[in-house]
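Replying to the earlier thread about multi-chain prediction with a worked example.

Input:
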Amino acid sequence: MAKQPMLKFVTVEKEMPEKRPPDLRARDFHEIYAEYADQKAAEQAGRCSQCGVPYCQSHCPLHNNIPDWLRLTAEGRLEEAYEVSQATNTFPEICGRICPQDRLCEGNCVIEQSGHGTVTIGQVEKYITDTAWERGWVKAIAPETEREESVAIIGAGPGGLAAADRLRRAGVQVTVYDRYDRAGGLMTYGIPGFKLEKDVVMRRNDQLESGGVTFVLNCDVGTDISFDEIREKHDAVLIATGVYKSRDLGGPGAGLDNIVRAIDYLTASNRVGFGDDVPEFESGALNAAGKRVVVIGGGDTAMDCVRTAVRQGAESVKCLYRRDRTNMPGSQREVANAEEEGVEFVWLTAPKGFTGSAHVTGVKVAQMRLGQPDQTGRQSPEEIEGADYTEDADLVIKALGFEPEELPKLWGVDGLEVTRWGTIKADFRTHETSLGGVYAVGDVVRGASLVVWAIRDGREAADAILDRFAAAAAPVAAE
Ligand code: FAD
Ligand code: SF4
Ligand code: SF4
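Result:
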């Protein structure tokens, strides 16, 4: 009888792939984890206890069939593992790299809860699809029949691209419009290479393009083409434009030079990585080299900024956050990575203003303590009177979160309803908006969220659009 490959969590310890030492990884923008060797991936997948009710699966936004692809990996049946994995996830190798697994699948793994350390689901998912690419198992997009219907997708982030993939595989004519020169949205220009190397994203863009998706890049909808024009040209429209309006900071000195927005800073850094000409980087305005950098914020964007600044050769990097470590929104894994790379976290601090004449020279900092819980149960930070001080800084990066732009106004669209937060109102299942035949997905509906949720929305909206086309094509029943 074949040896039982599963249920090894008692005898085999949790092991992540090798992580590059901090002093080495802080010198470049390559990913910090190596790939599992084949045997190690099989061994780690074999730690899964094959739960009858897999909580990992129910807490994955895509409801990936995790136990099955873990078993197939443990048995060395990798191509089948890939088939199962890609059936529910358009970009498994991307999610495996950048999902906050500790809050999703792995955070709900029962063997983690029994004290054995979670199955390393994300790393195995990444390994399966990276292997599939390497061995040529990833199939080209080749629809069996071409259909006449055409869909416009505005926004080439994960939400738009997941929908494009699904619609194109069904033979629909798909045109993706994006204001940037490369597709991928925040996967291309927001998330740094040390979390997600760019050729992983470009490979997917190429796959879509060679599968017949038309990309109209450098095209800002609302400026270069109107929304109404797009609507007239296509049978359905999907809005997947994300959220890009940065929350700002006021206070004395807020307008000084070298106080910059996180999205501008990270976009410039990613462009430099592509080899683009970036004058703001060359001039030093968006370059941390040799500077005392202060990043304000405690989310994942702040974590990406501090770690980017380290790699650009900053003299020092500090992160100010108004709550403490336990109450920060960013992933603990990323904080640990940042600390290993030399970032200093200054907990319970908030900016009150900035010093300097033309350029910023410091941040006036108020010290905080945690007070009573608010309506959400989170303790509110309160200022400690008389405890202010100044933190020296040559570059201040504001990473305080994002809000949606006012799309209906920007695009001059009547009847496109938004919520009181400015996000687009869409049916939670079909993703159709208040305008018939117009759908919306991802951050522009949810507010700043995650790649995996955008993928789920995009796939669901594509299915709803296909249902709409099927209903329109169905013969009308005789009275
Ligand atoms: P986006 O990815 O924002 O794509 C929207 C696209 O629409 C863009 O390409 C934009 O150019 C285009 N667009 C906008 N307006 C127009 C217009 N008028 N005309 C034409 N095109 C337009 N999520 C994770 O899961 N893991 C992470 O580690 C992670 N790290 C992050 C790090 C940073 C710095 C940031 C900012 C976000 C991070 N996220 C992460 C969140 C994640 O990137 C987003 O939730 C996700 O990309 C949203 O996908 P989307 O398709 O809705 O929008
Ligand atoms: Fe976990 Fe994300 Fe993969 Fe789902 S998609 S299994 S949440 S890493
Ligand atoms: Fe395996 Fe953990 Fe999922 Fe259970 S919860 S099926 S042990 S990965």
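Residues 248-402 form a domain with the FAD/NAD(P)-binding domain fold (CATH 3.50.50.60).

Feel free to reuse this layout for your own posts.
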